[in-house]
Amino acid sequence: MRTFLPALLVFFSVISLTAQNQNDGVIGGNFQVDVQSYTPDSLIGAQNVPEKLRSNAFLNLNYTKGNFSAGIRYESYLKEILGFSPNWGGKEGNAGIGYRYARYTNDDIDVTIGNFYEQFGNGMILRTYEERGLGLDNALDGVRTKLTMIKGLQITGVFGKQRSFFTVGPGIVRGIDGELLLEDFLKNFGDNVSILPEGWRLRFGGGVLSKYEQDLDPTLNLPENVLAYNTRMTFQAGGFALDAEYAYKINDPKTTNVNTYNPGRALYVNGSYSAPGLGINISLKSLDNMDYRSSRRSQLTDLVLNYLPAVTKQYTYRLLTLYPYATQPNGEIGVQADLLYTFPKGSFLGGKYGTSININYARVHSIDSSRNLNDSNAIEGNLYNTKFLQFGDRVFFDDFNVEIQKKWSKDFKTNFGFMRQYYLKELIEVLPGTGAIKTDVITSEFIYSMTSTQTIRLEIQHMAAEHRKIDAAGNDLDAEKDANGKTISPKLDNNNGSWIYALAEYTIAPQWFISVFNEYNYGNEDPNRRLNYLSGNIIYVKDALRLTIGYGRVRGGILCVGGVCRPVPASNGFSLSVSSTF
Amino acid sequence: MKSLNSFLFVGFLTLTMCINSFAQDNSKQVIPAASIKNIKGEKVNSATITNDGKPILLNFWATWCKPCIQELSNLSSLYDDWKEATGVKIVAVSVDDVRNSAKVAPFVNGKRWEYEVYLDENGDLKRAMNVNNVPHAFLIDGSGKVVWQHNSYAPGDEEKLYEVIKQVAAGQEVTGH
Q1: Which residue ranges make up each domain of chain A?
Q2: Is A113 touching B (CB cutoff 8 A)?
Q3: Residue A349 CA to chain centroid, in angstroms?
Q4: Domains contained in chain B, number
Q5: Residue B3 pLDDT greater than 70, yes or no
Q6: CA of A380, closest CA in chain B: separation in Å?
Q7: Which of A144, A558, B2, B78 has its CA 20 to 30 A from that of A327?
Q8: ipTM of the complex
Q9: Is the residue at B10 inside a domain?
Q10: Would the CB atoms of B105 and A274 count as touching at under 8 Å?
């Protein structure tokens, strides 16, 4: 990658020359620089960082002219900010071009060479994507072609190797996906050809993906070509929509599924109904052995080919994100129901400015299987029995949430919420002996506009937590305590017990945000760990430029952005972030 | 990997320079061609979004983004007046991925929003328009060019935004930002 630095300089000089000419296409891009200082803080468990100061940065440049576009991204991890995989910075830090592509597109065809992000259907067999805030990037590097010359039919073909930090993984990925929009497709045979009633829409799709990787295993006979496919259908009529997708993967023994020879299966069904003021959404998702990667040896988030997000609500209030569910690709079945209703303005409950209520319920179980997810030895002869779509006995996660938003006057708004959650920590965080956690959280938010541009926002949240013991048979029991009231089982971590959180934010539109917040772990069983995590931020925004300066203690925990989570260690220090789009 | 990289990169430079030697008239960013979905989940080319020569406010948001929802809720109560006075069309592009994208249509309807809504499930348009974080708004003039943009939302931003929309609707240069 280092050989690219001179090339990058050439690129910039070419751009600076060409940018003076107004008639040469468009150059755009964005960048972000994050800097974090680290002060050792043994109380919160912040590790000693020898560099004391670390930084992540990237800059995207995109060039577009007519049907042609091309771009690069330069990335640096000097060294990576804590929480990102240590593979980014390696031992001495790393920088280079992590992404480059050239693309030609017209009405019939769209061809990309280089890096690209692609998703087949709901992503259950293929989704390459980036989440820069979490250090995730599994882009394919190769060729992608999309054909759209037949009305109502789109075909996508991909060939590539998958990005793994500053290199690519060993597997070769090949895939093809088609999507047929029935009513549009029939228009190829005449403008009036139609078989569905007015306003009904029907869509079909299917994709096949195959990964090739040499079998070098001395004992096991492993499939070198691992095939997966999906079929999907969407039906719409009026405010009603039904979406279903089934995916299948042939046997693929590897580290993350404990070398099982079982095939993988997944089903996702989503139904929704909406009318002005009302939105209802119900989904079901079942997974069995669906961890799919372009390398058998890769772990965690490295070289993952498919995307299996949690079928649970994605929270944003701080204490609601303390125990987020993480999908169990080796086996789970979950359901979620979500209801949103906005009372009409002028009605009794709607008031003059309107009231919204949102209720969400999600529950995830084990699938009925002979496999014990906590004990890899339970798989005998590398096979296990499973009843796909049958709820197993173990509850992984259960979550009920209600939120009410009300605007009382032109200047004053409130949000209140309640959440009751059950979180099987020992399974979700793969920490045997840590049991489960039951929590009740109350959230409140008050927004008051003092003038047309100055606003004060307050948040107060409380979490009551109860730690539960899970015995060898998987039964949920009260915690076991000694004579002094100290918990023997489950094993407690540093952040156990109840929390209170408060935030105050003052904004001056459109430029200034000043906020202070504190998390207080007042219910920690260890009196020495009843700590305050106080932080402050000042943000300045000018058009697309954003500058953030922060200082404080950050609680160790799980950070989630856009549906994906990563663990973030505790830290104490200054942070600086600059980003812009040009 | 390295030889492929070098090959691609040199190719990219050569292409860029070749293409630059041809003349063309656009110097400002327009809505680029990216594969997004309409609210029904059907694939649409983003370059086809238009508003008959009147301004478009293209707003990137997500169902999990609190400031985004606050912004779109506040704009919702002003939208009718703004539309009448300036002809502006608000296009809300959700960057929710498949975890939440099925909830977008019920969400928009449940909030009684009347925007033209698109789904950018895999971030194709977001990347093509160089968006870092949501909310991020672009104002596009009658000829399809980006004339103003703003990242993040604070209550009261709409005052400044409306000034800019009025300037663009009247065909004036955007000033004072």
Answers
A1: 106-261+288-307
A2: yes
A3: 35
A4: 1
A5: no
A6: 34
A7: A144
A8: 0.92
A9: no
A10: yes
